[in-house]
Design brief:
binds zinc ion, 3-stranded antiparallel sheet, mainly beta, 5 strands, 0% helix, 44% strand, two-stranded antiparallel ribbon
Length: 73
């Protein structure tokens, strides 16, 4: 039985939506060194609009609500 490569190394980064200022989390690929700092687009979990964030690593997941923040109504 072949084991799937599920091990994903990522770093959780906190970002804020430029439209509604909702704080949220994205997962970025850790330590690849292949990605130069660039604007990347994130879809807001709250208002659904895309906003640009500047991160040195590629976003591979997200966005997610921070666990300490309750979901907006
Ligand atoms: Zn938003």
């Amino acid at each position: 039985m072949r084991q799937l490569e599920l091990k994903q190394t990522y770093t959780v980064v906190s970002v804020s939506c430029s439209h509604c200022e909702q704080e949220q989390l994205v997962h970025v690929q850790a330590g690849t060194g292949t990605w130069s700092t660039a604007h990347q687009s994130v879809e807001c979990v709250r208002c659904g609009q895309h906003f640009a964030v500047m991160l040195p690593d590629a976003i591979i997941g997200g966005s997610f609500l921070p666990p300490r923040v309750s979901a907006p109504q």
